[in-house]
Amino acid sequence: MRTSIIKSIQNPTEFKKQLLNWSQQFREIVFLDSNSNYNRDSKYSTYDLVVAVDAFTAIKTDYTNAFEDLYQYQSITNDWLFGYLSYDLKNDIEDLKSKNFDGLYFPDLYFFQPKKLFLLKGETLEIQYLNMCDDEVEVDFDEINQFSVFSFQCSEINIQQRVSKENYIEKVSKMLDYIHRGDIYEANFCMEFFAKDAQLNPSQVYNDLNEISEPPFAVYFKNKDNFLISASPERYLKKVDSKIITQPIKGTAKRSFDMELDEELKVNLSKDAKERSENIMIVDLVRNDLSHTATKGSVQVEELCQVYTFKQVHQMISTVVSEVENTTSPIQIIKSTFPMGSMTGAPKISAMKIIEELEETKRGLYSGAVGYFTPNGDFDFNVVIRSILYNSSNQYLSFSVGSAITSLSIPEKEYEECLLKAKAMFEVLLNN
Q1: Which of 119, 182, 190, 266 is the least buried, fewest Cβ under 10 Å from its Cβ?
Q2: Please, which residues bridge with residue 186 across strands?
Q3: Distance between the two ends of the chain, CA-based, in angstroms?
Q4: Cβ(361)–Cβ(330) below 8 Å
């Protein structure tokens, strides 16, 4: 079905930029960069870069029967599939609604089977083209290598805040009321920043955001007029043979240029009782989620509350794994764990209901997942956070940030954490 050709790449960093620029000619692009030089977790890293372009077949749907439709598509295609699951697919899993404002109008689910696929590891590039277009490999490869790496100037963008600081504090106080009443233990509360009449060059913004963040789960996604520019540090779910891996993030601290102070901030995060309790609550939740498809006794916490350093922030990350039977559908594994616990709360359904009530923007692709399925049913998906979403047809730009609210939360401090997470997005959008 596919022709595979191996090439040697002398300058992978330069090649990545050339490949991104070359890919812009296609209607569909998924560009997944692990930023290998900065990758915190080589243990579960398969590729340094995965790029898929040009849909041969595709599926696009709202949340109704979305997982069943995806199951049929994945089963029949039996090939590489790339795309996303939006947060609002929760409505297909549980009796939930999404009635908040949506300025982006992305489909709830979108996947495509690419004609052209590039897999980079170190200096080795595997090119996989569908047989119908395998005669284009050499021409394309020469074209990519001759592509200039250039930059564009974006127009001025006027970023607005959907929820004011006062309103944010009021809403978090309401969420704390729910927690003190015992309705929930924890919930992830998010707010949107947006711009209307925004004109930008998405690939340039992606390059800028990736350069200042270098996250392990960076994404550039394009489906005609819909763009995602993501500097995600978080893995949602990965399947390798019978092993399932999830790596929730809960716990954030700022960085400092002063090396001693930076180390102190990192140590303080590792000892912070509130941040640890947030992380442990979500570890319990994802352990429960994984247990729905796991073989008996196979759910294990490999790593608890480990602090990792990224360019913008320190993060507290845990790793939870399980084993599944080879007869278990990959779609069922995803459905039984979606949306990811780090973006919802505990108990999960109650938290999602309260989130819907208090947030003012439909999450859509934000806090959903982007990734791929392999022909043998393995998969790897990130969590869509630290991300800019853009609809070029109505020129609406959006990015959201959030934090976990627990009984120990101080609303003003949660607001500061949100601004810290938004810092990189503001930087690339206002400095272009």
Answers
A1: 182
A2: 346
A3: 43
A4: no
pLDDT in tens, 255-312: 999 999 999 999 999 999 999 999 999 999 999 999 999 999 999 999 999 999 988 8
Radius of gyration of the chain (CA): 21
Q: Is 2 helix (H, G, I), strand (E, B) or coil?
A: strand
Instruction: Give per-residue pLDDT as tens, 326-384.
Output: 999 999 999 999 999 999 999 999 999 999 999 999 999 999 999 999 999 999 999 99
Q: Which positions of the chain have pLDDT values less than 70?
A: 37-42, 150-154, 432
Which two tokens mark 238? 């990965």
pLDDT at 39 (0 to 100): 45
Q: Are 374 and 46 in contact (CB under 8 A)?
A: no
Say how far apart CA 119 and CA 107 lie, in whole Å: 27
**Residue 395 burial (10 A CB sphere; 0-12, 13-18, 19+):** middle
Q: What is this structure's pTM?
A: 0.95
Residues 229 and 252: their CA atoms lie apart, in Å, by 21
Q: Are strands 369-373 and 379-382 parallel, antiparallel or unpaired?
A: antiparallel
Residue 191 tokens read as: 């707010």
Q: Given the DSSP bridges, would you call strands 379-382 and 243-247 parallel, antiparallel or unpaired?
A: unpaired
CB-based contact 369:330 (threshold 8 Å): no
Selection from 111, 341, 377 nearest residue 239 by Cα: 377
| Whether 248 contacts 367, CB under 8 Å | no
How far apart CA 154 and CA 429 sit, in angstroms, is: 8
User: So what's the pLDDT on residue 277?
Assistant: 92
Residue 427 contacts residue 220 (beta carbons within 8 Å) = no
Q: DSSP letter string over 54-96?
A: EEEEEEEE-STTHHHHHHHHHHHH-S-EEEEE-GGGHHHHSS-
Where is 303: in which H helix or E strand? strand 300-309
Amino acid letter for position 91 = N
Alpha-carbon gap, residue 360 to 100, rounded angstroms: 6
Judge whether 57 and 77 are in contact, CB under 8 Å: yes
The residues near 227 (Cβ < 8 Å, ≥ 6 apart) are: 202, 220, 221, 388, 389, 390, 391, 392
**DSSP letter (8 states) at residue 375:** T
